[in-house]
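tool_call: predict_structure(chain=1)
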Amino acid sequence: MSPETAHLIFFSVGIPMLVVWLLGVRFAFSRLRRPSAREDALRLDEEPLSGEPLTSGETVVDGDAEAVSKKLAELILAQSGPSGTFAPRIRERTAQRITVHFASGRKGDEKPPLYTLDVTLAPEGGRLRVRYELRARRLLTIFRALAWIVCFLYGGLFVIGVPVAIWLLVLRSEDAALRMQTIQIVQMVHGVWPPFLLGFVWGRIRRALGRNLEALFANLEHLQ
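tool_result:
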């Protein structure tokens, strides 16, 4: 392979791969962004933010606040199942508020919750307005740590390491047969796709955590 052909392959493959990798990193971290200062202030009460809102909403139902609160707590526990990897634990339940932590199902585990459900109940015009927020500070932190590892440690090994190795060891070689190995620049692809996968996985998790919860509150009036 001539030096000109080797350089053509190197740049025509390497530059697009690098651009796609940068887009993947941006995609992953845009999905895993932290709440802004403005979002921090948008709380249902004065308590500090407990994590990025995965989903939130509200519904208006008939009934006594204490009775609705108790029934809703039972429904949340029943929907989550009696056990599981992320077992629900009610930390507070009053006629005005319900707080549920979802953490490891291991008994005695006092680690911070992976995600938290906050529900407020407020009388309004003879009915009851129920608001909810599902937040996930620890789960988001775990995924952001994974994003740094996947995008820059693992991804950088291929997206940066492969072209540097080819530039130093292959393109500068006087051996035409060795320059044929410039085609190995395509190995960069192994570092290009993981950021997109991580972003899609987080999106699926967000939808999975929110879907049943949204259905529960949408049908709350008929479940009492």
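agent: The mean pLDDT is 81. Proceeding to next step.
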